[in-house]
Each structure stands twice: as structure tokens, then as C-alpha cells.
């Protein structure tokens, strides 16, 4: 019989609240014969205050045994900015080589958008997940003086860029419109820009059916607002991908509905699924968080593990729920309950 051995990392702030709903929907959608085993990991501010520790080697060894990881959010105002984010979240993405950070954006019918009219929005951002300025390569000299100098080195390897670009081409090839846009800043970032552009052009030869396009990241933020329909698949570096996917979320239903998968395509390590948003300390503990992004991340998780029917049912439940939403008065729990009822029925 089939089974899913899932690691659950609720994390900080609203992470706790939304992951509970994600699990509720997962339990409701899985058929009887699928055995779901979950193990919760207490990562985030509580663990850090109690032990001074962030992610350990023992944690990684334990996590490695799971089929997949569901994460809420990491980061808390009681800890200096970045300590938990780097110490838990980024460490995990790097250790498990989550180089494909998949962030789909789809504006569902009837869902509010700040954009004029109801533009067609259906694209996916393939954000590189293990390189760029996220590698922690940098330094400070004369710290704290008026002459402080800080460097933050963006690391881009031919190997790392090529594998994520090839993954994005394959995804574009599999979609009806077969279009891939490289987003970078090759007019200023001479070295990384050259590497990305060259690799993109070279890999394109393997995918003659895919239409290609290049847009500077600043201009991409214009088109995401004025003409989002032009995008099908976008491939971009780690930091640009972080920034444009919050914008993408904002125009396609809001940050409360944006899902992501941190994928290790070789399956050597478990992939990790999480909402694009963070721990939202401004609304934590108030039952105001929208759990839809986490529920849609559960759909990505299901599809990754081969449960396509169940993934589709979760996405259909969200479409139906969002289409009929209209007001924002429901609590986190009420939205989770409504989605669980829809996937079960
Ligand atoms: P955030 O995404 O937590 O919040 C940004 C805004 O979006 C806030 O106004 C918040 O109330 C709103 N929001 C977020 N999720 C929502 C939801 N599900 N429903 C309704 N509204 C929602 O970003 P931030 O404020 O920049 O960061 C807060 C903390 O989270 C920081 O510590 C940051 O480092 C961390 N963070 C973690 C992750 C992650 O774990 N993957 C992602 C982003 C930010
Ligand atoms: C995200 C977050 C993280 C990132 C932070 C919290 C490290 O913003 O998942 O989008 O920058 O990748
Ligand atoms: Mn982000």
C-alpha cells in the first residue's frame, strides 16, 4: 500500500496557523489506502531561544528520511533579522540542493487583482535556489566605522545556471504556449549577466519549439503589472526571483494565495513545499492569515509525489472557494475547513 512520510515544519508566526490548515486538507484529500505519517520539527524562534541552535547535522539526517517537507514560515521579530532565515530556511534549501524554486502564478476567475480588468495571468517563475547573492559570500571591513565596507558576492556557476535553465526550458516545452523568458540585468551585472545569457542561448538550441525572450529585471516589474499575460515561464536568479515572485503574487490574487516548491529534481533529497509569504508578525495569532498559499503548496507537494488526481482536487477546491469568496471575513480555520470539505466531497 502507498504511504507518505512527511516532515512538517510549522515554524514561526502564521506558519503555525497555515500549516495546520494545509495538513487538514491533505488528510481530507488522501484516499483511505494512502498512509500519511507526519513528524513535526520545532524549527524557528522557540528552538533558537531554548537552545541557541539553528539547523543541526542531526536535523538534516532526520529530515533526509522523509518523502517531502511542508514548511510554514521562518523568521521572528524576537531574533535579529536573518539569523533564523539563514540558519534554518536557507540552510535547508542549500543542504538539500533545492535548486529549482518553483513559483506558479495564476489569477483565478473571480479573484480580485489590483490590475485593471481581469487580465489572463498564468505563468510560472523558475527561481534558482542555491546560488546568487544567497550563498553568504561576502564580508565587512572597518565594521561600525564611518568607513565600513560591505561586499555581498553573487555566485553563479555554469553548472548551477545550466541545470536550472534546462529545467525551465523543459517546463516551457511541456506547456501549451511554450515560451521562456530570461529575466536578469545583463546591462549592469556584466559577469553573471554574461554567464546567464550565454547558457540560456546555448540550452535554447536543445528546445527549438520553445520561444525565447530576454527582459531586464526592472522592466520585468513593469510588464508584470501592465502586461502579465506575456509571461509563460520565467527563469531568473535567486534574488530577482525572490523579488518578482512577491510582485507576481500581489497581482494574481495576493500573497495569501502564492505557493512554492523548493525542488531537488534528482530526488536525492526531499523537496520542500511552502507558501511564498513569511511569518507575517503583523497578523500572527489573530486568525487572519489566509491558508490558501499553504494549501496550494500541498497541491504542488502531492503532484511532486505522483498524486496528480489529489493535487488537481486541491487546486479545484481552491478555485471554487476563491471564486466565491467575495469577502475577507473568514478566519484561517474557517477557510481550511471549507477547503477540506470541498476536497473530501
Ligand atoms: P511576510 O510575507 O511575512 O508579510 C508581508 C505582508 O503580507 C504582511 O502585511 C503580512 O500580513 C501579509 N501576509 C503574509 N502572508 C499572509 C497570509 N497568508 N494571509 C494574509 N496576509 C499575509 O513578509 P515580511 O513581513 O517581509 O517578513 C516577516 C518575516 O517572515 C521576516 O522574518 C522574514 O524574514 C520572514 N520570511 C520568511 C519566509 C519563509 O519562511 N519562506 C518568507 C518571507 C519572509
Ligand atoms: C522567500 C523568503 C526567503 C528568501 C527569506 C526569508 C530568506 O523571502 O522564501 O521568498 O529570500 O528566499
Ligand atoms: Mn521572498
TrEMBL record:
InterPro entries: ICDH/IPMDH, IsoCit/isopropylmalate_DH_CS, IsoPropMal-DH-like_dom, LeuB_actb. It is found in: Cytoplasm. The keyword Lipoprotein does not apply. Pathway: Amino-acid biosynthesis; L-leucine biosynthesis; L-leucine from 3-methyl-2-oxobutanoate: step 3/4. One of its GO terms (biological process) is L-leucine biosynthetic process. Residues 5-339 form the Isopropylmalate dehydrogenase-like domain. PROSITE patterns: IDH_IMDH. Its main location: cytoplasm. GO terms for cellular component: cytoplasm. Its EC number is 1.1.1.85. It comes from the Bacteria. Keywords: Amino-acid biosynthesis, Branched-chain amino acid biosynthesis, Cytoplasm, Leucine biosynthesis, Magnesium, Manganese, Metal-binding, NAD, Oxidoreductase. Its cofactor is Mg(2+); Mn(2+). The record marks 134, 185 as: Important for catalysis. Pfam families: Iso_dh (PF00180). GO terms for molecular function: 3-isopropylmalate dehydrogenase activity; magnesium ion binding; NAD binding. The keyword Zinc does not apply. Catalyzes the oxidation of 3-carboxy-2-hydroxy-4-methylpentanoate (3-isopropylmalate) to 3-carboxy-4-methyl-2-oxopentanoate. The product decarboxylates to 4-methyl-2 oxopentanoate. Belongs to the isocitrate and isopropylmalate dehydrogenases family. LeuB type 2 subfamily. This is 3-isopropylmalate dehydrogenase. It comes from Streptomyces aurantiacus JA 4570. The gene is leuB.
Amino acid at each position: 500500500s502507498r504511504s507518505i512520510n512527511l516532515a512538517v515544519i510549522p515554524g514561526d508566526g502564521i506558519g503555525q496557523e497555515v500549516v495546520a490548515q494545509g495538513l487538514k486538507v491533505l488528510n481530507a484529500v488522501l484516499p483511505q489506502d494512502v498512509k500519511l505519517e507526519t513528524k513535526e520539527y520545532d524549527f524557528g524562534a522557540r528552538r533558537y531561544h531554548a537552545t541557541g541552535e539553528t539547523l543541526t547535522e542531526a536535523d538534516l539526517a532526520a529530515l533526509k528520511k522523509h518523502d517531502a517537507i511542508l514548511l510554514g514560515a521562518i523568521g521572528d521579530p524576537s531574533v535579529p533579522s536573518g539569523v533564523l532565515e539563514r540558519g534554518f530556511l536557507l540552510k535547508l534549501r542549500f543542504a538539500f540542493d533545492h535548486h529549482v524554486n518553483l513559483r506558479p502564478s495564476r489569477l483565478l476567475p473571480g479573484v480580485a487583482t489590483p490590475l485593471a480588468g481581469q487580465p489572463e495571468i498564468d505563468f510560472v517563475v523558475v527561481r534558482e535556489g542555491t546560488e546568487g547573492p544567497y550563498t553568504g559570500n561576502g564580508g565587512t571591513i572597518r565594521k561600525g566605522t564611518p568607513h565600513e565596507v560591505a561586499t555581498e558576492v553573487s555566485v553563479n556557476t555554469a553548472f548551477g545556471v545550466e541545470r536550472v535553465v534546462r529545467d525551465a526550458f523543459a517546463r516551457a516545452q511541456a506547456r501549451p504556449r511554450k515560451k521562456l523568458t530570461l529575466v536578469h540585468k545583463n546591462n549592469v551585472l556584466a559577469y553573471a549577466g554574461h554567464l546567464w545569457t550565454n547558457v540560456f542561448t546555448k540550452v535554447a538550441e536543445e528546445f527549438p519549439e520553445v520561444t525565447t525572450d530576454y527582459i531586464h529585471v526592472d522592466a520585468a516589474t513593469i510588464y508584470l503589472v501592465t502586461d502579465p499575460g506575456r509571461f509563460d515561464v520565467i527563469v531568473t536568479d535567486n534574488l530577482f526571483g525572490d523579488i518578482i515572485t512577491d510582485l507576481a503574487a500581489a497581482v494574481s490574487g495576493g500573497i495569501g494565495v502564492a505557493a512554492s516548491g523548493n525542488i531537488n529534481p534528482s530526488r536525492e533529497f526531499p523537496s520542500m513545499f511552502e507558501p511564498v509569504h513569511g511569518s507575517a508578525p503583523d497578523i500572527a495569532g489573530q486568525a487572519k492569515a489566509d491558508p490558501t498559499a499553504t494549501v496550494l503548496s500541498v497541491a504542488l507537494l502531492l503532484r511532486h509525489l505522483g498524486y496528480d488526481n489529489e493535487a488537481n482536487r486541491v487546486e479545484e477546491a481552491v478555485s471554487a472557494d476563491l471564486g466565491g469568496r467575495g469577502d475577507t471575513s473568514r478566519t484561517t480555520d474557517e477557510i481550511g475547513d471549507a477547503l477540506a470539505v470541498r476536497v473530501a466531497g
